[in-house]
Amino acid sequence: MNQTRAFLIFAWLMVATLLWMEWGREQNAPTIAPTVAADGAVPVPTAAGVPAVPTAPGTATAVAGPGRATPVTVTTDVLSVVLDGGELGQADLLRYPRTKDDGSAPVRLFDQDPANFFIAQSGWVSGTGPAPSHEGGFAPQGAARRYALAPGQNEVTVPFVWTGPNGVTIRRTYTFRRGDYAVQVRDEVVNRGAAPWQGYVYRQLSRVPRALENSGPMNAAGYSFQGAAWYSAEDKYEKRDYEDFVEDGTLNKQVIGGWIAMLQHHFFAAWIPQSDATTTFSLATPRGSAGTEYLIRTLGPAVTVAPGGAAATQARLWVGPKLISGIQAQQVPGLERAVDFSRFGWLAALGDGLFWLLEKIHALSGNWGWAIVGLVVVIKLVLYPLSAAQYRSMAKMRKFQPRIAQLKERFGDDKQGFQVAMMDLYRKEKINPVGGCLPLLIQMPVFLALYWVLLESVELRQAPWIGWINDLTARDPFFVLPALNMAIMWFTQKLTPAVGMDPMQQKMMQFMPLVFGVMFAFFPAGLVLYWVTNAGLGLLQQWWMTRRYAEPPSKAATVAK
Predict the structure, then answer these.
(1) 3-state secondary structure 31-46
(2) How do residues 431-486 score in pLDDT, each as one tens digit?
(3) Virtual CA dihedral for 41, 44, 48, 51, nearest 10 degrees?
(4) Which stretches are transmembrane (predicted)?
(5) Contact yes or no for 122/160 (Cβ under 8 A)
């Protein structure tokens, strides 16, 4: 197998992968009909001695409240949210505009609009008395309805309170910190009644599938995972597409710590309970005002408060981008997997490594485009021993092309005899006919892993390179990079020996630059930049190796008489 056939193998693998990805994207269109009760209630287990209660508030006398509180607006340097005591119904990410246009509105992650419905909710259920739900009960504590992070202020707190008829009060405090997308939510239960009170806090995320803003064969958002994800110490990271909420069975998982999330392209929301809290994860598809909603919930921990006593529980609500540095700062096991660097699980580790390296190079260059170029240089240096062997093999094969042509003429239609004679020549001259394949095939997983890195990395979202490339995660608007790739592939073919290839294969290879040029026209510009840089350096290395090994053939290479 020579270098040309390796190109054919690579092209076949690329086309097969793209077809598989496109098929998978079409299969992800959610068409699930709700299969739960009309009121959306889903029974869940509770601790021993506590009656089972529905997790959907409003379906039992254990849930009570005077109605929804007046909404409160909170603005920090990174977030602008609207919330009442039990629900975050709107959240704008102030540092992430929707488009590159001047004056573009920020990305709205939480939204009450039926077409983009996505909210976070939290409340309580109890088998021993009333409890506040996310639908009502909590009231703002104080007269303020607008909170803003003042210059020099590091955090702002927003208090709510619920007071039950049995002497139990629950004070809920939301804490927003500067530069932080994790909202701290603390509930403090105080029992001034005459009887013990026991309850469960629940936290949930509910949404309808997000409609794609753009379409096309390589629309990045179409291939990014959308659905629910969760993490437990026992089973690690798990996820479920919207269409599989019902088909893959119910979820009823008891977990210590962990987290639950709803993921979409570049952004996500996640509830993160206390690391020592015992909770139960579950999924549901209730019918809401926005149609069928997809809900992931964590119920617990159980809180028992004696008369005159108090207890507290807290959690974090991440509302923001898939920002690696911010996620790692939370120090939550497995939360970095929310940045899903691969729909192929075995590529995730490679994607993590590539992003780590890319981030280090970006710290030096200050530009993500040049960081991609630097990444290619590093990979080329790592693979240099393999690629040097590849180009030495190709140079030798080019040098012996006249001899192989004469062998082909001598054996005529005797293809088996020709193959035996050609392999004998390879053995005598120490030419490895498969030496050109290995480096190219090694590039395949790197290429795919980098594709997912560029697809998922919000750090590269709308990041410019130079001139006309103002968004590395979008396709080249003027197709300059795909055209450069076509030219480099054409020159590479001219330097590549077509040893033992019949005319039909040669004609097929002549179309390969055009095929790759059209295919790369739909790829993210950052990925095409990677491939153009890699191919350009490879062309220079191949040219240099060809000149180095272009001395006249040795006596052993002369035609046998």
Answers:
(1) CCCCCCCCCCCCECCC
(2) 766 655 666 677 778 878 877 887 888 999 999 999 999 988 888 999 999 999 99
(3) 10
(4) 368-389, 431-454, 511-532
(5) no
Dump pLDDT digits (tens) for 415-441.
888 888 888 888 887 776 665 566 667
Q: Quick check: 382 and 400 in contact, CB under 8 A?
A: no
Bond prior to 301 in cis (omega within 30° of 0): yes
Residue 387, CA distances (Å) to 5, 213, 496 in order? 16, 42, 14
Type and span of the H or E element at 529 = helix 525-548
Reported as a single tens digit per residue, the pLDDT across 520-539 is 888 889 889 988 998 899 88
The rounded mean pLDDT for the chain is 81
CA separation (Å) from 217 to 72, 405, 471?
Answer: 42, 43, 18
Three-state DSSP at 116 gives helix
CA dist 281 and 204 (Å) reads 10
In degrees and rounded to multiples of 5, residue 80 shows phi and psi of -135, 115
Structure tokens at 450: 């980098």
Q: Which of 305, 322, 213 minimizes the C-alpha distance to 266?
A: 322
Angle (CA) 540 542 547, round 5°: 100
**Packing angle, helices 503-510 and 3-27, rounded to 10:** 60
Each residue of 261-305: pLDDT tens digit?
Answer: 999 999 999 999 999 999 999 999 998 776 789 999 999 999 999
| Of residues 177, 134, 115, 168, the one with CA closest to residue 316 | 177
Instruction: For 13-29, give the DSSP string.
Output: HHHHHHHHHHHHHHHTS
Q: Per residue in 163-189, pLDDT tens?
A: 999 999 999 999 999 999 999 999 999
Per-residue CA distances from 242 to 238, 292, 374, 459 (Å)? 13, 11, 38, 26
Q: Once rounded to an integer, what is the mean pLDDT over residues 87-92?
A: 96
Phi, psi dihedral angles at 434 (to 5 degrees):
-100, 5
Helix axes 512-520, 480-495, angle to 10 degrees: 160
CA-based nearest residue to 298, from 44, 117, 128, 119: 44
* φ, ψ for residue 157, nearest 5 deg: -110, 140
- 222 by DSSP, 3-state: which? helix
The model carries a pTM of: 0.79
CATH fold, domain 38-338, is Beta-galactosidase; Chain A, domain 5 (2.70.98)
Which residues on adjacent β-strands are paired with residue 140? 160
Question: What is the spatial distance between Cα 434 and Cα 337, in angstroms, rounded to a whole number?
Answer: 38
Where does CATH 2.70.98.90 sit in the chain?
A: 38-338
Name, in order, each residue with C-beta under 8 angstroms of 493's C-beta and a sequence gap of 6 or more.
Answer: 4, 509, 510, 512, 513
Give the end-to-end CA distance of the chain in Å, rounded to a whole number. Answer: 27
**Token digits of residue 186:** 């603390």
Which SS3 state, helix, strand or coil, does residue 304 take?
A: strand
Token pair for 318: 């991440």
Q: How far apart are CA 549 and CA 389, in angstroms?
A: 12
Question: How long is the chain?
Answer: 561
